[in-house]
Amino acid sequence: MPSHMTATEPKATPPGAKQIVTIRLDVDMLEWFKAAGPGYQTRINQVLREHMDAQRAGELDAE
């Protein structure tokens, strides 16, 4: 470790970094995403990101 860094400094998270998580989803919803073919996890992430962005935009509009 370089001398200018300490063990307590958080590492910068690169844009687009992924983290493995466990999430419980309704069976029918998961089947619907999987039925569209490979990449269902990416599609779920995209839907969640769009929702997050819309929520954030709404927060900004309310100010």
Write the layout of secondary structure elements.
Elements: H1 27-35, H2 40-62
Brief summary:
The protein is mainly α and 63 residues long. The chain has 2 helices and no strands. 0% of the residues are buried.
Explain this structure.
This protein has 63 residues and is mainly alpha-helical. The chain has a domain at 27-62. The chain contains two helices and no strands. It has helices at 27-35, 40-62. α1 packs across α2. The longest helix has 23 residues, at 40-62. It starts with 26 loop residues before the first helix and ends with a helix. Pfam families: BrnA_antitoxin.
> What percent of the residues sit in helical stretches (DSSP H or I)?
40-55%
Element order: H for helix, E for strand? HH
Average pLDDT figure: 87
Poorly predicted runs: none
List keywords for this structure.
BrnA_antitoxin, 63 residues, mainly alpha, BrnA antitoxin family protein, 51% helix
